[in-house]
């Protein structure tokens, strides 16, 4: 509990421009929750939808929201665009849309709403294994899904450029987790 408080205090120091309250996005209010992760191009938070309104379908009750100051959001804007290209692939994280909010000091903040990976990442799973690694059955299942996701991305003329265990997200599905490729901020168009 103390470490979470410390993490929140650190977050406030690192991102003093961020306002922690409800916002309006296409007819829905949403609330930024706890931090899920931080990267070089922004931070990811849990987000929940409040008071759904008529005509605002398309947003689940719980999402992840990737956030960056607009002035530093080139990679996030690019990622949002690419996720639109990959919509419908069951092995790439889903994107529900974007929103702009005003932070403290009227800093414009760009927010991208993503599918919430409640299982964390494959990197988390490997760390939790205590050095024993994943069982062969898991490796086969996850590898097949990841390769299908990579194939989908490549068939559309793009290369991920930052594929690593921390960018393979685990989403609950039926009797387990489905690995989905995420963090496409460094993806590039394939030459030729």
TrEMBL record:
Any one biological process term the GO annotation gives: signal transduction
Keywords per UniProt: ATP-binding, Kinase, Nucleotide-binding, Serine/threonine-protein kinase, Transferase
TM helices/strands, residue ranges: none
Protein kinase domain segment(s): 30-192
Gene3D superfamilies: Transferase(Phosphotransferase) domain 1
GO MF terms held by the record: ATP binding; protein serine/threonine kinase activity
InterPro entries, alphabetized: Kinase-like_dom_sf, Plant_MAPKKK, Prot_kinase_dom, Protein_kinase_ATP_BS, Ser/Thr_kinase_AS
Matching Pfam families: Pkinase (PF00069)
UniProt xrefs under PANTHER family: CCR4-NOT TRANSCRIPTIONAL COMPLEX SUBUNIT CAF120-RELATED (PTHR48011), PROTEIN KINASE DOMAIN-CONTAINING PROTEIN (PTHR48011:SF56)
Source organism (scientific name): Prunus dulcis
Keyword ATP-binding appears in the UniProt entry: yes
Binding site for ATP: 66
Family to which the UniProt record says this protein belongs: Belongs to the protein kinase superfamily.
Protein's name in the database: PREDICTED: mitogen-activated kinase
Entry-linked SMART domains: S_TKc
């Amino acid at each position: 509990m103390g470490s979470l408080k410390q993490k929140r205090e650190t977050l406030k120091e690192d991102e003093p421009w961020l306002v922690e309250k409800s916002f309006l996005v296409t007819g829905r209010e949403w609330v930024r929750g706890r931090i899920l992760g931080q990267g070089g191009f922004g931070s990811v938070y849990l987000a929940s939808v409040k008071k759904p309104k008529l005509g605002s379908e398309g947003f689940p009750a719980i999402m992840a929201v990737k956030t960056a100051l607009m002035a530093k959001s080139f990679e996030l804007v690019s990622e949002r665009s690419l996720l639109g290209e990959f919509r419908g692939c069951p092995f790439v994280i889903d994107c529900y849309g974007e929103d702009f909010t005003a932070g403290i000091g009227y800093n414009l903040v760009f927010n991208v709403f993503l599918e919430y990976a409640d299982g964390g990442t494959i990197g988390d799973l490997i760390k939790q294994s205590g050095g024993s690694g994943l069982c062969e059955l898991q490796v086969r299942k996850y590898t097949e899904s990841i390769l299908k996701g990579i194939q989908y991305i490549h068939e559309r003329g793009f290369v991920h450029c930052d594929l690593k265990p921390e960018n393979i997200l685990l989403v609950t599905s039926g009797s387990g987790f489905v690995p989905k490729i995420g963090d496409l901020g460094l993806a590039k168009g394939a030459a030729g």
